Amino acid sequence: MSELEQQIIGIISSAGDSKGKAFEALRKVKEGDYEGARALMEESRKIDLEAHKIQTKLIQSEMDPDAEKPEINLLMVHAQDHYMTSQLARDLIETLIEVFETKEGGK
Questions:
Q1: Number of domains within the chain
Q2: Is residue 19 within 8 Å of residue 86, measured between CB atoms?
Q3: Is 17 annotated as a binding residue?
Q4: pTM of the full structure
């Protein structure tokens, strides 16, 4: 497996882990455990940063006229799809936590 493929798999893996933590946080909300939900969302954000760092490195390579350009392929598109989906899920779940917490007087 090439370095690029490893980086792409890193994005997919981090994005999946981040999204998983966010949905786990939503389950905590269903149990009324807002503190646990917020802790899981913080874990989700930290995991997401790993995917973001890899993505940023690939984008910088793409922009650097002296660097070898990363090959755009289906695997990279798939990774970007996973990353964007995990970000959307996390953002939406953060908002849901706020809504439920406010509605139930948990804040």
A1: 1
A2: yes
A3: no
A4: 0.86
Asked, for residue 107, whether it belongs to a domain, the answer is no
Express the helix, strand and coil content of the chain in percent, nearest 5 each. 80, 0, 20
- Which residues have a catalytic role annotated? 78
Residue 88 is predicted with a pLDDT of: 96
Nearest residue to 82 (alpha-carbon basis) of 4, 9, 14, 15: 15
**CATH code, domain with 37:** 1.20.58.80
| Gap between the Cα atoms of 55 and 68, Å rounded | 15
In a domain, 87, yes or no: yes
How would you class 71 by CB atoms within 10 Å of its CB: exposed for 0-12, middle for 13-18, buried for 19 or more?
exposed
9-67 pLDDT, tens digit each: 999 999 999 999 999 999 999 999 999 999 999 999 999 999 999 999 988 988 888 88
pLDDT for residue 84: 96
Residue 77 sits in which domain range? 3-102
- Cβ-in-10-Å burial (0-12, 13-18, 19+) of 63 comes to exposed
